[in-house]
Amino acid sequence: MSFLDTADAHSIAEQVRTARLSPGIVAEHFLAQTSARESAIQAFVALDPQVVRKQAQGLSSPGINGLLAGVPVGVKDIIDTRDHPTGFYSPIYDNNWPSRDAHVVALLRQAGAVIMGKTHTTEFAYMHTGPTRNPLDLNRTPGSSSAGSAAGMAAGFFPVALGTQTAGSLLKPAAYCGLYAFKPSYGLVSLEGIKPLAPSFDTLGWYGRSVRDLGLVAQVLIPGLPHVTRPSGPRTFGFCRTASWDQVDPLVADALLAAVDRLKAAGHSVTMVELPDEFAQVFDDHLLINDCEGARSLSKEWQSSPELLSPSVVAMIERAKGTTWEQESAAKARLAVQAHVLKAIFAPFDTMLSVTCGMVAPLGLETTGPSDFCKFWMAFGLPQINIPLPRQPGEMPVGLQVIGGFREDSALLDAAGQVDLALRG
Amino acid sequence: MSFLDTADAHSIAEQVRTARLSPGIVAEHFLAQTSARESAIQAFVALDPQVVRKQAQGLSSPGINGLLAGVPVGVKDIIDTRDHPTGFYSPIYDNNWPSRDAHVVALLRQAGAVIMGKTHTTEFAYMHTGPTRNPLDLNRTPGSSSAGSAAGMAAGFFPVALGTQTAGSLLKPAAYCGLYAFKPSYGLVSLEGIKPLAPSFDTLGWYGRSVRDLGLVAQVLIPGLPHVTRPSGPRTFGFCRTASWDQVDPLVADALLAAVDRLKAAGHSVTMVELPDEFAQVFDDHLLINDCEGARSLSKEWQSSPELLSPSVVAMIERAKGTTWEQESAAKARLAVQAHVLKAIFAPFDTMLSVTCGMVAPLGLETTGPSDFCKFWMAFGLPQINIPLPRQPGEMPVGLQVIGGFREDSALLDAAGQVDLALRG
């Protein structure tokens, strides 16, 4: 067992900044991990060890002194990179080499990160899945759409990875693979150089090995985000089941309720929160808007190469064609009103808790299960974190979701640290 | 005087589709216009006649039968194009050649358009101006930031052009150069491959030679936008002065009020609308959010090459550093609440009218005047159209602004047609 098998990015960068570890040694460790297991996992769609080594060897000031000095990062393949092709898992974009990095990739490099390669996504971050397997059980999906980033994290290929989320694309794989994940508030992270799907929801997020790593990457990718550290002590949590609670597997529900008991035992207050009935409509409204915006975002591909689109994308576009402009406007207007109602419901609580997924990672690679518990909060642009519940060897992971108020990302990161401490302390 | 000097895109494409005009002839006409006047106007940052000819000659099905068959289009240089460099008017991006077209450029090509070249923008579509002059008076600014697209339209270099708007970047140049312009509702047009400035506001829009051309391009760039044609007849307009009305030059105010009289004479109803006092805050809130989001959008350039940024961008970033997270959150929350109030104020009217700019194009090229009357509606994502008031030879143009409800772009286009008819009919 080596330090780098479990060290978080915070620790790795500190070792690199103080010259106790070289970026080259760090890179070789993670390359060795990929050599051992990548053929079984298939996290990468593009991985070139020479490109990784060149970055590590070329690291100079200010990167070598940066917050992510020498930290390898996996990048979902709907995010442009200048030294790797960017294919969106679509044959339409075979051999597409962007002229410049996406904004977030440039910020990572400026902070000293080493881009490990491009990780498998579903086609255009929608539903058509790739070959990636869940490292915790090769017969199960790692979740989608940020499949390669999540599987690569769980396999130890990199300690940080970028994903994106429109419904549950970042948090669902985190729940299935047992990862810490952070999806910031809508609009905080630049999407320049990232393929849009449904721009009302699309948000970049990331995986890390600890809650503090989620905050560390936030410092790099959200310039100006304030740092909030409240003293440890009792917090006031709400637990919100949403109208989809009947989807939750009893074993998952038991694990979550046990986690709630541990939070209470640690001195926190947890109150069950019921939502007004009209919030049951949120799931359908998210789907409808996702369809209509997805159809517009992929209209050029639909017009130029419909035969190269998967059945799931074609079905999305067909559903959009069957939706009127007024239906889409009404769905957006409902969400705008409900956002104010939800804000009032949040007010008495420091942070909201929920389940991330109602089931553990399902068997098979072609479907990845519902995303209702993620997309409910996505519909309002709220920041979300997945905390993997502690588990016994051999058990598949279950995720606890922690949700913050809009733009209260710092308070959410702080609260998630308290939750994690209570569960593991 | 040739047909192509004044023909709108609708007429040109019809001639091309029916083989009465070849795309090559059309391209040569507009290239000849640029030969005659481009050295005085400087609308283009990149113009290659061979690239234009190659597109025109290569036009085949389906483009040759498309809605924009053979129509030359100017493209603002913050929009990626695969056959021209894209420089954002920043030395940081000298010789940047994107690997693929922005989504909107791809849609234009699919509809048969010919990309004429890249038009001058201010640096990153913010405030630092380029060399472009107003074709109606070379001593005056064409407005910013879509300077080259607007000036090229007024000079007859192309019959359609793309611009973008975050505050007044599309409509202000339209007012100064006497153009029809359409800024759709926020979120309807894909921004893939367009450099972000303030993502809460950034919207692509376009210039055309007629109101019907504004609608024609909308059909191409907003797939699924319904077509609304109400029978001609009396409309119920509101006229909203906003809290910035004291900025309006008396001659501009007189011209607008004369236009209102013509609308009334044509049988329409025009009611003066007063806004509650708290709406005076909108201008400052827009500025504050623009600063904070602009600073995040340009954070990679600020970190890598601060010495290559203009004083205006640096000042924006410095203002953002002096703004707290809570101030930005509060500004966004105010706008979200006010959007609902404004919706109720709009309800009794078919469409709202206002001034586009409080002055005609000012003398000089370095500053371009305030954008308050544009950015007020931008803050709420509402669709906006500029209609140039009829004018005498030698007079500088004045713009009437027509504003629609959110996502009611089709109704706005229809109403703008009625306004234009009343003013010119």
Automatic annotation (TrEMBL), chains A, B:
Protein name per Swiss-Prot or TrEMBL: Asp-tRNAAsn/Glu-tRNAGln amidotransferase A subunit
GO molecular function: transferase activity
InterPro entries, per database record: Amidase (IPR000120), Amidase_dom (IPR023631), AS_sf (IPR036928)
Ranges for domain Amidase: 28-413
Gene3D superfamilies with a match to the protein in the record: Amidase signature (AS) domain
Source organism: Pseudomonas deceptionensis
